């Protein structure tokens, strides 16, 4: 896909999905955040719009990673008519100063001047309470649908008490991220041809019926670094995308060992685990089990992304790596399904470093592959006597839909594809998890964000052995229709703030009351929710709003309160009987 094609498709997506011009900027920020989250660059994004024009303050969203003590704050430069236009370095700096000033004012207690119902109140409260305590690092992100052609580093004043970094994500950088994620497993490396050196591996004896071969040994650190320099993050499987800055404790440890105690590196470091579709190996001698590596095909690092990136940066800093070796394990898998299972298990069980992106780790999970296949062949019911002409499109990887649209060779074919697969009927894997877990009465988990919730969703499918078939797909779509209907109702109620939390708590309470009596088949057939059910959602939403905004301890951050199981349990204990009595009196269940 070319950049101009991506810009056209992405701008169309924003326009079609945002209901009016006033919220298109936030929809843009949300979409950018989803891409960054699913690629492990940030954790889940929370929309949090706040602006004081007279004071030069603005914020659009944030992402808080408590374990890493890092807060990521987003500010947008967006104009629906300026997709692909140029933004200057001056405007970039001017914009970033607004969000930096927002942070500084929040440290000083700006929350005390705000309404608690303001969308950005939880962020201002979080900064005030956590700055310098569990917020040790602040990452400022400028996201824009413009092009930052200058591409120069931004240097702004540092904040006292925290480390600060600035990141600029323009529309081209987003395009590069999506483009990079296509065809990740096509890497072929001939080490001697590319780098003039190789290494040796010992084959591990295994059962002849196994669908894989395993090798262990040591790779020269400079060879691994040069491989990363050539292939970049395409070499690192998406689930273990490395943080390219040494900002976590593990990364700093790797860096410091390479600088000060290189001779101890092999003892301290766990090494890297890799997989490949195929490997060309040459037996060193007939009486040995030692092989010289010639070439890897479809080579991917599934554990050790930080080690790889760290030795690359050490090489760039001029650190001599000639006497540094890294333990390497290679698994050559002989079948597609075997490749998924092996890759996923290695990634999940072996990774002991920074948080991985679970939605990418599980992108090739058999359940998701089934959902994708079912969605491509399941037509939406027609209620007007004509044949069905559209489908729900399950997007197993972020950006998949845009890529599929662009693969159509003519304008007529693109229009036909979009008619058959409408943009407003695209299902992401994190959204499907949100629909499912909300109905499964886990609003506290859903409130923790897309990645955490997705992990819980996949674990639940595996633990319960849930069969993902046509019935499951249709019920999931019906849950999505119910969820999105609830979203619209809450917008109509104009409840100030915490919309995402109200939706999931409302759906969970509805599930609690209806239990197994909800007719999802009817919702699927009608592709809509009855008026009676909409009235029930409206009622429950009001109770949900009152509950979450009145935590037992005054001053508790509402967003954090919603993530606690106690919040859900109290909601059921205190309001279930009242809500159920009303609904039953309406003879709807």
From TrEMBL:
Signal peptide positions are none
Domain of life of the native organism: Bacteria
Taking every annotated instance into account, which residue ranges of this chain make up the domain Abortive infection phage resistance protein N-terminal?
A: 28-176
Residue ranges constituting the Abortive phage infection protein C-terminal domain according to the UniProt record: 237-552
Protein name as annotated: AIPR protein
């Amino acid at each position: 896909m070319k950049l101009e094609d991506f810009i056209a498709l992405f701008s169309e997506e924003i326009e079609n999905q945002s209901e009016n011009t006033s919220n298109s900027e936030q929809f843009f920020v949300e979409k950018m955040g989803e891409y960054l989250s699913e690629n492990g660059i940030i954790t889940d994004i929370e929309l949090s719009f706040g602006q004081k024009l007279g004071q030069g303050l603005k914020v659009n969203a944030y992402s808080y990673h408590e374990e890493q003590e890092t807060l990521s704050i987003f500010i947008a430069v967006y104009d629906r008519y300026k997709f692909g236009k140029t933004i200057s370095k001056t405007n970039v700096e001017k914009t970033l100063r607004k969000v930096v000033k927002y942070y500084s004012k929040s440290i000083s207690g700006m929350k005390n001047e705000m309404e608690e119902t303001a969308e950005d109140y939880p962020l201002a409260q979080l900064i005030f309470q956590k700055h310098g305590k569990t917020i040790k690092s602040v990452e400022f992100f400028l996201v824009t649908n413009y092009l930052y052609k200058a591409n120069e580093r931004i240097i702004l004043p540092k904040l006292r008490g925290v480390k600060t970094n600035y990141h600029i994500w323009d529309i081209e950088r987003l395009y590069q991220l999506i483009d990079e994620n296509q065809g990740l497993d096509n890497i072929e490396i001939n080490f001697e041809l590319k780098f003039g050196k190789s290494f040796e591996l010992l084959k591990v004896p295994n059962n002849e019926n196994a669908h894989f071969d395993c090798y262990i040994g040591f790779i020269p650190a400079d060879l691994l670094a040069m491989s990363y320099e050539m292939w970049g993050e395409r070499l690192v499987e998406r689930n273990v995308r490395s943080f390219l800055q040494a900002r976590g404790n593990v990364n700093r440890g790797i860096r410091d060992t390479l600088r000060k105690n290189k001779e101890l590196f092999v003892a301290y470091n766990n090494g890297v685990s890799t997989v490949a579709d195929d490997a060309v190996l040459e037996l060193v001698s007939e009486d040995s089990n030692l092989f010289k590596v010639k070439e890897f095909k479809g080579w991917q690092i599934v554990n050790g992304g930080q080690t790889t990136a760290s030795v690359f940066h050490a090489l760039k800093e001029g650190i001599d790596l000639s006497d540094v070796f890294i333990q390497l394990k290679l698994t050559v898998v002989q079948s597609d399904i075997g490749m998924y299972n092996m890759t996923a298990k290695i990634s999940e069980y072996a990774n002991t470093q920074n948080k991985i992106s679970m939605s990418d780790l599980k992108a090739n999970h058999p359940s998701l592959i089934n959902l994708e296949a079912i969605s491509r062949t399941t037509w939406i019911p027609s209620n007007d006597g004509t044949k069905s002409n559209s489908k729900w499109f399950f997007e197993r990887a972020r950006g998949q839909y845009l890529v599929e649209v662009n693969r159509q060779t003519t304008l007529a074919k693109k229009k036909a594809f979009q008619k058959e697969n409408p943009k407003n009927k695209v299902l992401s894997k994190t959204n499907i998890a949100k629909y499912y877990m909300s109905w499964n009465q886990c609003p506290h988990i859903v409130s923790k964000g897309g990645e955490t919730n997705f992990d819980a969703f996949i674990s639940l499918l595996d633990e319960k052995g849930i069969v993902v078939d046509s019935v499951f797909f249709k019920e999931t779509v019906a849950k999505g229709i119910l969820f999105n209907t609830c979203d619209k109702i809450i917008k109509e109620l104009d409840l100030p703030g915490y919309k995402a939390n109200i939706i999931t708590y409302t759906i969970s309470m509805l599930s609690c009351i209806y239990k197994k009596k909800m007719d999802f088949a009817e919702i699927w057939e009608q592709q809509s929710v009855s008026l009676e059910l909409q009235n029930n959602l409206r009622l429950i939403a009001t109770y949900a709003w009152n509950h979450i905004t009145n935590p037992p301890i005054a001053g508790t951050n509402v967003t954090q309160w919603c993530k606690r199981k106690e919040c859900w349990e109290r909601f059921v204990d205190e309001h279930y009987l009242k809500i159920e009595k009303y609904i039953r009196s309406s003879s709807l269940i």
